[in-house]
Specification:
The complex is a heterodimer of chains A (444) and B (173).
Chain A: H1 2-19, H2 23-121, H3 124-127, H4 130-140, H5 147-164, E1 167-175, E2 181-189, E3 193-196, E4 199-204, E5 209-212, H6 219-227, H7 245-250, H8 256-300, H9 310-317, H10 326-344, H11 348-380, H12 385-443
Parallel strand pairs in A: 1-5
Antiparallel strand pairs in A: 1-2, 2-3, 3-4, 4-5
Helix pairs in contact in A: 2-4, 2-5, 8-11, 8-12, 9-10, 10-12, 11-12
Chain B: H1 2-14, H2 16-56, H3 63-81, H4 84-116, H5 121-166
Helix pairs in contact in B: 2-3, 2-4, 2-5, 3-5, 4-5
Classes of the chains: A alpha+beta (444), B mainly alpha (173).
Protein name (chain A): MotA/TolQ/ExbB proton channel family protein
GO biological process, one term (chain A): protein import
Coiled coil (chain A): 20-100
């Protein structure tokens, strides 16, 4: 490598050595060249300097330009910053609006859900069944709420409110107690009570059906319901302010058969006694009425005593005795009357006994019922009153039966005793008088 | 109209037994009035008639006359006392009916307890009304009637003995 460089240098230097004749010429030429070189350098230096000055100038200009631009930039920068701040603010606002919208939306859905439950419970739904589906749609949607949705919910609420305050008739399907579904014209009073043809209906929210109650309220309420709207005068109206719960509870009220069952064995005994006592009383009443009539007939013709009545028998017993034998006559009369007494008073004691026994049996039933109740308490404690109810209802029902039997029997006994005592008194005190009067009439 | 509603409300609160009590009360007062009118207006004339008929008799001392007098007194005494045992029994029945109403009301109360537990005083209220009102009504009716039973019996007894005193037994002149 180094050899190649050396060779190349030698080749370059060789011609110079060839041209130069002498050293002076060389010197001159060197000086000339130096001169030339210097001039050239000076010129270049000048050019550079000039160039430098121009650059300097340009720099100043550029600086000035920059400063001017900078000054021009200043307001724009402020605008930019202001815009940035504005953007930030707007973004925050947007975020909060979106949040609010979310709140409104969830609030709306929640309300729609709550109201859906209210609507489901409302009797109006039986009249307007399409509403609940519409409302469920509103409640179940997951998108942001729209103005239309809000308006439709508003409309539903308003509708519920307005129509709940009205008394209307509308055709609907009702479920009868037999389970058959029949079309009927239903009269609705607010959201409280509904009737169809005087029958109270109960709205069942689960199925949305109107159910005819198996246990209807007292007849006067039903006739009032059937007559409703037919008269112009103010009239009685019965509504269930609990929206059907009271009517629902009423179906639990036991009927007569349930009540008899509640009374238990003692209840049955009391009822048996009561029936027997009532029959006995009726028999005695009929018998005594018949006897009274026969005696009256006998009084009209004393001459011919008939054996089918007490008076006739008494008269027959003294028919052979002569009028003048006063003492014998009196004796015979007393005897005959005494003989009649048991037949006339028959059954009185038994009726009285029944009237006295039935409240005692009722008391017995009460005590056994209380024993059952206390057994229930000792087993289950007093926590659940329903467990005690069986014993208590037996206790009360037997008392009721006892009184229900005793009161008419007491009354019946009083009537029977009154009639029979009157009859005996008549025979005892008036028979002789009748005879005497008759004898006087015959004597003239 | 308002009073009618008040009465029907009262009756509805007291239950069916109250109607029974009402009927008993009406019957009781009908009987009491009937007795009062009989004793006040009908009886004096009738007594006069009986006495004058007795006075018109010639024979007022024989066995026959005695028997006839006895029969007359007995007949009229019965007429005087007619209905008084019924009044008495009705007065006795009134508190019993009240008691019946009370027990029926208690049945209602316990039914409410059986259905809804014992924490709902409002639901029990109708049963409690039914338990208290008939007792009160029964006692009121009995108390108003009890005086008249005693008084009417007293009046009838007195009238009967007075009649007996006026039917004098004497030897015909």
């Amino acid at each position: 490598m180094r050899i190649t460089l050396l060779i190349a240098l030698l080749i370059l230097v060789a011609p110079a050595y060839a041209q130069i004749d002498n050293l002076d010429a060389l010197l001159r030429s060197v000086e000339e060249q130096q001169q030339e070189q210097r001039q050239l350098n000076q010129q270049r230096e000048r050019e550079f300097l000039a160039d430098k000055q121009r650059q300097q100038q340009l720099l100043i200009e550029a600086r000035r330009d920059f400063e001017r631009q900078q000054q021009e930039n200043q307001p724009l920068l402020q605008v930019t910053e202001a815009n940035a701040r504005e953007i930030e603010r707007l973004e925050q606002e947007l975020a909060s609006v979106v949040e609010d919208m979310g709140d409104i939306s969830s609030g709306f859905r929640e309300f729609a859900g709550d109201f859906s439950a209210v609507l489901q419970e409302s009797m109006l739904t039986a009249q307007l069944p399409a509403r609940s589906a519409q409302l469920r749609e509103l409640a179940d949607a997951t998108t942001q709420v729209t103005i239309e949705e809000i308006q439709s919910l508003w409309l539903l609420v308003q509708e519920e409110m307005t129509k709940a305050g009205k008394v209307t008739r509308f055709p609907a399907e009702i479920v009868e107690t037999s389970g058959a579904t029949v079309p009927a014209e239903v009269l609705r009073v607010g959201v409280f009570t509904a009737w169809a043809g005087g029958l109270f209906l109960r709205y069942v929210p689960e199925t949305g059906e109107l159910l005819a109650l198996s246990q209807q309220p007292p007849a006067r309420y039903r006739t009032a319901a059937a007559d409703f709207g037919k008269q112009t005068t103010p009239q009685m109206m019965a509504i269930d302010p609990t929206r059907g719960s009271l009517l629902g509870v009423m179906t639990y009220t036991p009927d007569l058969r349930d009540r008899i069952e509640q009374g238990g064995t003692i209840g049955l005994i009391i009822i048996g006694l009561g029936v027997f006592g009532a029959l006995l009383t009726l028999w005695r009443l009929a018998a005594l009425t018949l006897l009274t009539r026969k005696i009256r007939k006998q009084l009209d013709n004393i001459d011919t005593p008939v054996a089918d009545n007490p008076l006739g028998r008494v008269l027959m017993s003294v028919s052979e005795v002569a009028d003048q034998e006063e003492e014998l006559l009196q004796l015979k009369l007393d005897e005959a009357v005494l003989a009649e007494m048991p037949a006339i008073e028959r059954g009185n004691g038994l009726i009285k006994l029944f009237a006295a026994i039935s409240p005692l049996l009722g008391l017995l039933g009460t005590v056994t019922g209380m024993i059952l109740t206390f057994q229930a308490i000792s087993l289950f404690g007093t926590g659940d009153p329903k467990l005690m109810a069986g014993g208590i209802s037996q206790a009360l029902m037997t008392t009721v039966f006892g009184l229900v039997v005793a009161i008419p029997l007491l009354f019946g006994h009083s009537v029977v005793a009154y009639l029979s005592r009157g009859m005996i008194q008549r025979l005892d005190e008036q028979c002789a008088g009748v005879l005497a009067r008759h004898a006087e009439q015959q004597d003239g | 109209m308002n009073q009618v509603y008040q009465i029907t409300d009262f009756m509805a609160q007291g239950g069916e037994v109250l109607w029974l009590l009402f009927a008993t009360c009406l019957l009781l007062w009908f009987l009491i009035l009937e007795r009062a009118i009989f004793l006040r207006f009908v009886w004096p004339r009738r007594a006069e008639k009986v006495v004058s008929a007795w006075q018109a008799r010639i024979d007022r001392d024989s066995w026959r006359a005695r028997r006839i007098r006895e029969a007359l007194v007995s007949e009229n005494s019965m007429a005087l006392h007619a209905g008084i045992p019924l009044i008495k029994v009705l007065v006795v029945l009134c508190p019993l009916l009240g008691l019946l109403g009370t027990v029926v009301g208690m049945v209602g109360v316990f039914e409410v307890i059986a259905v809804s537990g014992n924490d709902d005083a409002q639901a029990m209220a109708s049963g409690i009304y039914r338990a208290t009102i008939p007792t009160m009504a029964g006692l009121v009716v009995a108390l108003t009637g009890i005086y008249f039973t005693v008084r009417l019996r007293q009046l009838a007894d007195r009238a009967a003995s007075k009649l007996q005193g006026r039917l004098v037994l004497e030897v015909a002149a």
